[in-house]
Amino acid sequence: MIRGMSDTAEEERKLRYERRKAAYRSARRVLARSSVLSTLRERLARLENAHELYDLDETADLYGNGVVEALEDKVAGLLGTQAAAFFPTGTMAQQVALRCWAGRTGDPRVALHPLAHLEVHERHAFTQVSGLRPVRLNSAPRQPTAAEIRDLDEPFGTLLLELPLRDAGFVLPSWEELDELVAAARERDAVVHFDGARLWETTVHFGRPLKEIAALADSVYVSFYKSLDGFGGAALAGPTTLVDEAKAWRHRYGGQVFQQFPTALSALAGLERELPRLPGYVRHARVVAAALREGFAAAGVPWARVHPEQPHTNEFQVWLPYDADAVAEAAVRQAEETGTLLFARPWDAPGPGLAVTEIDVRAAGLEWTPEDVKAAVAEFVARVRRGADG
Hints:
Its cofactor is pyridoxal 5'-phosphate. One of its GO terms (biological process) is glycine biosynthetic process. It holds the Pfam family Beta_elim_lyase. It contains 15 helices and 12 strands. By secondary structure, it is of the alpha/beta class. It has 2 domains: 2-37 and 277-388, Alpha-Beta Complex (Aspartate Aminotransferase, domain 1), CATH 3.90.1150; 61-259, Type I PLP-dependent aspartate aminotransferase-like (Major domain) (Aspartate Aminotransferase, domain 2, 3-Layer(aba) Sandwich), CATH 3.40.640. The chain is globular. The protein starts with a helix and ends with a helix.
């Protein structure tokens, strides 16, 4: 009986996932148009004006030269580092970075938050594949403090800071706090590595340009698809000696790919077209967040949490006091019935009667006024309540 109920619930979730995809594709209004559900034709259209980004009469890249090297130079220039290396994945880039630093410091221990991407989303690759060892900082869903780094009861060779810390709500320290975190690591003779998959989004919160942010770290990893909507890929930026060694390890890890020009061109497109827009997305995310809070209050929801209250990037969390399946169904029905998809991402259940999702504000979201957001919230809550009433 229990097994049958569980199977039925799983089938309902799979069906809702397919409905959500279809609703997303057909919705007239969303807060972000993600490339995740785009067709091949739509993705390839991203390269229609590639001739504006790079000389297409040059020969295609071979094992990391040509357009890939041009992309590496572009990233190094944006981050103000001596060099950068292109990697097919961020998982590989960060493993290589941490492995190189472990060899240089003589210490395989990496101090990091237990909610860091390396700990939660990579099947512990950096320990299982690269032989590194985590030293976990605080267990709270927030960035660590300088005091916590100074008070760690064992040494470590590298401090890894995820900026922003996605699973805690895309949260960032203040600029002063970040400076203190780095100083605390230096006091312990450790190097500092930034997991900057979304570092591109942080300039508004820090009030500093990318070069000044990256300058605090010894090495920085950035993604080309999370913020910039590229086809994939990542870069590791830092001193020339580190990057040269990283390229040797890239080959050993299987990252010396024969040709990567479509991904490299899409990354150049993201740096040219999407990067300048990110500050505007961050600022409008704060408008959307405030309207969400007001909308849920006006709808009489017992409590609703937007976290952070003022988003640090263009992504943030929304917490509601409802069953996760119920709000997921209401979100899909709203899109199917009205053409407005307010909550495009999945809902998780952190506890009984709790639901949490992520909000992403991009170009499509700039069209939403606060009144639009509040009206969508009212329609959404009405559907949640109708569902609860059966």
